[in-house]
Amino acid sequence: MKSFCRYIALIGLLTLAGLTSFAQQTQKMYLSGTGSDKTVNWQFHCSAGRNSGKWTTIPVPSNWELQGFGKYNYGWAKDTARGKEVGQYKYKFKVPASFEGKTVQIVFEGAMTDTEVKINGKPAGPMHQGSYYAFKYDITSLLKFDGTNLLEATVAKHSANQSVNEAERKGDFWIFGGIFRPVYLQALPVQHISRVTLDAQANGSFKADVYLKSAPVNSTASVQITTLNGQKVGAQVNAAVAADSVMHLQANIANPKQWSPETPDLYNAVFTLTQNGKVLHTVTKRFGFRTVEVKQRDGVYVNGFKVKFKGVNRHSFWPTTGRALNKLRSIEDANLIKDLNMNAVRMSHYPPDDHFLDVCDSLGLFVLDELAGWHGHYDTQTGTKLLKEMMEHDENHPSIVLWVNGNEGGHNVELDPLFRKMDVQKRSVLHAWEDFGGFDTQHYRDYNYGIGTYDNGHSIVMPTEFLHGMYDGGHGAGIDDYWKMMLANPLSAGGFLWDFADQGVLRTDQKGRIDTEGDKGPDGIVGPFHEKEGSFFTVKEVWSPVFFERREIASGFDGVFHLENRYNVTNLNQCTFTGKLVRVSDTYGKAKPAELNIAITSPNIKPWEKGDLKVNMPSDFKSYDFLYITVTDNYKRELFTWSWPITKPEKVARKIVVKDGKQTINVTGVDSLYQVSANGIKLWFSKTSGMLEKVENTKGIIPFNNGPVLQEGANNFKNFTQKLEGKNVVIESTFDRKAAYNTLQWTIYPTGWVKMQVRYFPGDYFTNFVGLNFSFPEKEMKSVEYMGSGPYRVWKNRMKGTKLGVWKKDYNDTETGQSWNYPEFKGYHANMYWCKFITSSQPFTVLTDDEDTFFRLFTPKPHDDQWHNYVVKFPSGDISFMQGIGAIGNKTLGAEDTGPMGMKHIFYDYEKEPKRAKEMNLYFDFSGR
């Protein structure tokens, strides 16, 4: 049987004079704009909803809801009832003279959903069904080359094909209508290259299938590999064209630079069709040399190294333009994903814009490219067509390492063999949320996965969605536990967080309100306009390829840190390490801020090996408060800045708190209260409970009171007495092993400073949080300035991502994922040294000499969902000082299901002996300074 293919080995360099100078490239003319940032107005008519029933104009590309037409729809089944608008488009254009005599195609990169195209009143071809796929028609015979042409496109938002609606429009995401990706004409020689598929392996093996259209028998197909700046790599490969419609070209390149997220090196392959020395057509494809291998019951290997995917799911989305994007948006998205120290992104739940894949190629991100399907799938005929369109559009991107056939039940299994048949690289196919093809990708499993799955199974473990973010839960909350487990499990290939950005759309019908459809859309690590929430920095630290083992800076500290290199190919000597000693100011101006930069030699630590980093600390380093170490990669991208305390809270408190003074303290008993006056400050304490009832100074009342109240412990302070100790007044309770085992002591110094010491026992073996509460009217709080970890709040299961320093935060009532004024004001803050509360009347300051103290600012507005997983418990009162704080859940998991850090605190001792009690010391300055 005659073969339709011919393999031509690389045999030498053949130069055809004039090829470069006279090569015929495919010509392109945009009818629309090139993206959401550069649009062209077309005539437009919408059949229903806002601004319907009349001809006007609309920018193309765009989604018409964002332009004031039709109705907004958020997934599920709403589309069938509300989303049946039809948009009619018209656009007049002239064809360049240079297009005449060529094959002219019209290309739609994406239209939602059913699209019928006419040129000069005649159909360009059959209706296209499917939103996210580039499709084209040969319109050569329909064009007027000597006059004006009319393009008409009718786009039905709801598909006439129910399987398309099931796959695309009933998902858990916003659904839109319109021509949302560019439309253009492309002119090719009649005898041309219609498609190129290539496979470039890490060892330099290069194979390409070149599909030819109307190629003459005596023509030649060739390929020349070059660098991106045009330098030739290896010899040109040539093949004589016989009657074959597909030519196979093969070459071997010695020692090519390999493509990976750490080394995204790219080349060009220049394909040329010639006849008798005359160039008929030239096509250039950008590619990378890399090998993807799936080893069953082992893992995914790229270029020989085993991959742990650190990934996120990404929708093609922007609040003001919907799914209509542009290359700058793609660059921003990819850079933010790289800034998170991620190496992978999943296209959820449809193929992306071509420019996003271009950016993933050039910046270095593994991609899981996905055929749409969300609990429903395309019928086989439709799916086959759309799969072919996706494959032809995306197949040559080196960033794509795996395909995904639908999501969460939206898998048409009849399409599975077609992926391998159509893909020259034979990349593996996943079913997201299913144990299929050797991959267990099940979504949102508990940290304790259970019998027969994940840790106890035999498939490669790679959840294509895990830690489902919602509001401030998920992503950072629990990821440290999950990642430790993923690193330890040889069958784990990492996973993909859900998801990248809050799906908040600007409602042009609601005065510009950002709508996340309640709790359905606020799932991102960043906000709709890419605002960074606290989890952004937690993920950044946890997924840093440079890992610092825990190290305390204490007596005998020698400047050595123990590191692990979690890169796959990069030695840490290629990174840049910089150190900085920092002395921060305090709220009283007693400490003068200072910084000292420290030169650090990057350590020679190979991938996945451990080693030491030596920091040459100056002899006076203990005079500084904090040490910072910043690591940047070999592309100057910051991996993270770590911080360590040098000065402990006790030293800071000792420097700030003034105890000794010549002032006289007056104490009087008024009914049930002790009234203490010192240096212009008046304090009232309950004789019964010991609580601070009232504070006043010469400027007026400070409404900080009703504390301390123990949280999840017995408020059994009893039998208070008052005495003098030198010049100090001491008011304290009496310990009783059964009735009053928690004790409270107030010490008032002549200077007006006040010390509170509480010794207490948590109320139960398991407890949500541990600490003390006070009251303060939220409406009077303006801001805080504090020394500690910041600027973002923390949760018990999201402690990483902050930095030690002095932070200023203005009051806000931000609801994470519903409003985006970050960092949030309310919540828990870690590693308190001191905090100055700036109020509408006068400030007051609280210090501690204890390490690991949290302070809590009010209670964020409560959120909930139908599963009640997210619910966050907060202490009573308004301002708290805590030694144990609560964890946070996410949309699919309660806090305790996200790992050990999400579990309740344990206090083991019920003996209630004073020496076993927890202790908290706080100092208060109510002078109004």
From TrEMBL:
Q: Which family does it belong to?
A: Belongs to the glycosyl hydrolase 2 family.
What does the annotation say about its assembly with partners? Monomer.
Name residues in a coiled coil: none
Q: Which GO terms describe its cellular component?
A: beta-galactosidase complex
Top-level enzyme category: hydrolase
Biological process annotations from GO: lactose catabolic process
Keyword Signal part of the UniProt annotation: yes
Where do the Glycoside hydrolase family 2 catalytic domain residues begin and end? 292-511
Identify the keywords attached in UniProt to this record, alphabetized: Calcium, Glycosidase, Hydrolase, Signal
List the Pfam families hit by this protein, alphabetically: Bgal_small_N (PF02929), Glyco_hydro_2 (PF00703), Glyco_hydro_2_C (PF02836), Glyco_hydro_2_N (PF02837)
Q: Where is the Glycosyl hydrolases family 2 sugar binding domain?
A: 56-189
Q: Domain (Glycoside hydrolase family 2 immunoglobulin-like beta-sandwich): give its ranges.
A: 196-290
Q: Which SUPFAM superfamilies match?
A: (Trans)glycosidases, beta-Galactosidase/glucuronidase domain, Galactose mutarotase-like, Galactose-binding domain-like
- Name the source organism: Mucilaginibacter aquatilis
Signal sequence, renumbered to the chain? 1-23
- The answer to whether UniProt assigns keyword Cell membrane to this entry is no
Cofactor(s) recorded in Swiss-Prot or TrEMBL: Ca(2+)
EC number annotated for this UniProt entry? 3.2.1.23
What GO MF terms are annotated? Answer: beta-galactosidase activity; carbohydrate binding
Q: Which reaction does it catalyse?
A: Hydrolysis of terminal non-reducing beta-D-galactose residues in beta-D-galactosides
Domain called Beta galactosidase small chain/: residue spans: 723-841
What name goes with this protein? beta-galactosidase
